[in-house]
Amino acid sequence: MSRLPAVELCFLGGSQLSAWRMAPTRAFSYLSARRLRSSLGGHVGLRTIAYQEELEEVDLGEVAGLDSFYAVLVPRTHLRVVSAMDAVRRANPKLTGRLMAAAESWGNGERAGAAAYRLVSLARGGLGLVTAARLAPSLKRIENENHESFERLWIRLHEAGCERLLITSPVPRERWTYPEKQVQHAAQYRAAARLAAEQPRVDALDLAGLLKRIGIRKALGGDRYHLSPDGHAAVAEAIAEWALKHLRAGAAIPQG
């Protein structure tokens, strides 16, 4: 078996980087690093950088001093308009609070909340369509803003020693429950794909397309937000394959 020189993997993102209600060793970051070690041998370091709001706030101190590293960005999504669901919450916080609590109990495995979950899902889906319609005129602007943010981050990462960057789309949500998220996720992925077409050391990965192969519901955990074990495994495999392809290419990677 050929041996790989020491490589550092750095993951950037929000709560999706963690293994929700699972052992940390089931997170896609850990699984992809383990796959690299087993496939090619050698040292594979693992670092994570969490951020809350905008990419401009990302602190790259975690990679300071590294000669080189590979980076994976799983971007967060922040709606650029007030969602219709938020408007309803503000209008009747007690009722929506009770329904959301019941729906969450079902998501946590309690059968009693199943009816509330279905009701909330239907309401959220309908209100999501309203929000998606409000977002529609802004989607090109959202795409351009994300492209600029991704480009600025890539410049910072490259200056810090990053050899390759993989930008994924955000982790998808159920189609009929979160239509407003779906349209914004698509805009973010288009921004990533544009940057990948412009920069030879940047790649893009559509998580929605990837996870449809196993089913979005199966790919998401009980909260319908974080990845399930199956979802983490699928994402880890795709990330490992991406890294392996470029690590094997070695010196064939063009200078960016």
Characterization of the model:
It is a single chain. The chain folds into 2 domains: 7-77 and 140-252, SGNH hydrolase (Rossmann fold); 84-134, no CATH class. It contains 9 helices and 5 strands. The chain has helices at residues 28-40, 84-91, 93-107, 114-135, 139-159, 179-198, 207-212, 216-219, 229-249, and strands at residues 7-13, 44-50, 69-74, 162-168, 202-205. A 5-stranded parallel beta sheet has the order 2-1-3-4-5, with helices on both faces. It starts with 6 loop residues before the first strand and ends in a 7-residue tail after the last helix.
Question: Any key phrases for this structure?
Answer:
alpha/beta, disordered C terminus, 256 residues, 5-stranded parallel beta sheet, 9 helices, 2 domains, Rossmann fold
